[in-house]
Amino acid sequence: MSLKDKLAGSVLGFGTAPLGNMFRNIPEAEAQATVDAAWDHGVRYFDSAPFYGAGLSEIRLGDALSRHKRDEYVLSTKVGRLILDELEDASARDLGEKGGLFEHGRANKMVNDYSADATLRSIEDSLKRLKTDRLDIVWVHDIAQDFYGDEWLSYFETARKGAFRVLTRLREEGVIKAWGLGVNKVEPIELTLDLAEAQADGFLLAGRYSLLDHERALQRLMPKAIERNAEIVVGGPYSSGILAGGAHFEYQKAPPEIIAKVEQMKSTAQRHGVSIKAAALQFVLANPAVAAVIPGASRPERIAEDAAARKEVIPADFWRDLREQHLVAANAPLPVDNV
């Protein structure tokens, strides 16, 4: 069974990182209304992680989904970070490129741990926060962040001997349906695909396959994923928000060169009467390696925009224009044939 089948046909999912108070303090009612809006627009795949606000996203998602039958939706979360009872200054918890990302989240301290014991404990804790008795998919989270430096291979080796084996066993026992990596780097996915003993079902790739940034993934990852029957769930299709009217790219304020490229894309979209959000979503879904896309949202109206963007009719001339301006890679699959 393919990853797309395991997602029950939910091509447009909901990434719930914003529900962990990413970038701002989101009122509880607004968070719950956003999940409700996703459900009302037909979204049935929801993804979360302990990292998102130190469990806040999982708690909010669990509260909202508890009003629905468990068999009616697909749920994924992540392992690799444990939430402790110890409290800390949330504004200083994140390192490197993610500094301050969840400064408005819960104050619980988190530690990186990809071992077998930590994987099992993380799953048990997530089940409680999500108010459910089972997970459909488990991703090994952020195994190659920039702030790990050269140490990321040691984290990967710990995960290979720990998390990978535990998740493989849980899948074989029928406890979970699938597992893979949830990362924003292509290298750990490529490395996992080459492991004989670790047969991941698919991968969650955030930010590395988008309208704005896709060349690296196209070089080797996407062809290899197709060859190995390991489909990709794409997170961050709006590149941290810059493609959806926001000011962030790679979790930070977008630099001038990125802003200029986005403005060029927006100008092209306006000439063809196309919304940039629709272009971003439909570009991602055009790749045959992609099983689903999971944009994040913290306001109900954003969910409606995503649903409309997926259905918007985009003329072939728009895609041809992007390619002629070298705004998309020459070998990138596009939503229309023969462009």
UniProtKB/TrEMBL annotation:
InterPro entries: AKR, NAD(P)_OxRdtase_dom_sf, NADP_OxRdtase_dom. SUPFAM superfamilies: NAD(P)-linked oxidoreductase. CDD domains: AKR_AKR15A. GO terms for molecular function: oxidoreductase activity. It comes from the Bacteria. Residues 12-324 form the NADP-dependent oxidoreductase domain. GO terms for cellular component: cytosol. This is D-threo-aldose 1-dehydrogenase. It comes from Pseudogulbenkiania subflava DSM 22618.
